[in-house]
Design a protein that fits this description.
single chain, Rossmann fold, 7-stranded parallel beta sheet, 7 strands
Length: 247
């Protein structure tokens, strides 16, 4: 059956696959026929994701992307890829006057330096095939200000800028590079935070479509960007936010 969104014959690396958006991306890609290479810091949760994948031949490689030697090993063990999804990320809210170098460095190490370094290593080791697709999970925070979110916003804004230059540099090889900018998505990080359920309910009402995103909402867009259906899409930053930035 004709399906321009099929991922059959594609090997795709997904970081941050042990939970949240990364887990959903990995599962949905497997349903579309992809061979998955998944990585995350928590080996137990990564194994839980691995058990959810459809089909066979998948690979799991636990790794802390902020550790240079583990990052190097991941790039070495990874087979040749037709797709990469950089989904690993963290957040920590601090008002500007309380920002310190330790907190800023930790956040930038995970949200910016790790995907940049992994991309560099995969390219140097010739692990990214021509006509491949690279997807960075960014955030509407890259352009939409929110109190206490300066560090996170800076990391995602920098990631978007990096992706655009990378898209230009890799275009001669037909390698596409794009970002997805989600609004608030219901993941364990959101539900286990300091915000009460009442506060979350009030915040959710602000969304024109009446709800926060689900991990699958971002996973489906990722499938599109990884597929041949998006063969003329590069350097884009796709906003998927339930309409919240319309306000």
């Amino acid at each position: 059956m004709y399906n321009p969104f099929s991922l059959e014959g594609k090997t795709i690396l997904v970081t941050g696959a042990s939970s949240g958006i990364g887990r959903s991306v990995a599962v949905e890609c497997s349903k579309m026929g992809a061979l998955l290479v998944i990585t995350g810091r928590n080996a137990e949760r990564l194994s839980a994701t691995f058990a959810m994948l459809e089909g066979g031949g998948h690979l799991q490689i636990p790794a802390d992307l902020t550790n240079e030697s583990e990052l190097e090993q991941l790039a070495e063990k990874t087979p040749v890829l037709q797709g990469v999804v950089h989904s690993a990320g963290i957040n920590k809210r601090l008002p500007v006057k309380f920002i310190n170098s330790g907190a800023f460095d930790e956040l930038m190490q995970t949200n910016l330096y790790a995907p940049v370094s992994l991309s560099r290593l995969l390219l140097k080791k010739k692990k990214i095939e021509k006509k491949a697709s690279l997807v960075f999970i960014s955030s509407i925070a890259s352009f939409s200000a929110d109190m206490g979110n300066a560090m996170y916003s800076a990391s995602k804004g920098a990631l978007n800028s990096f992706a655009k230059v990378m898209a230009l540099e890799l275009a001669p090889q037909q390698i596409r590079v794009n970002c997805i900018q989600p609004g608030v998505v219901k993941t364990n990080i959101l539900l286990s935070g300091d915000i009460s359920q009442e506060q979350l309910a009030e915040e959710e009402k602000r969304y024109p479509l009446g709800r926060f995103g689900q991990p699958e909402d971002i996973a489906f867009a990722t499938v599109y960007l990884l597929s041949n259906a998006a063969s003329w899409t590069t350097g884009a930053a796709m906003t998927i936010d339930g309409g919240i930035t319309l306000k």
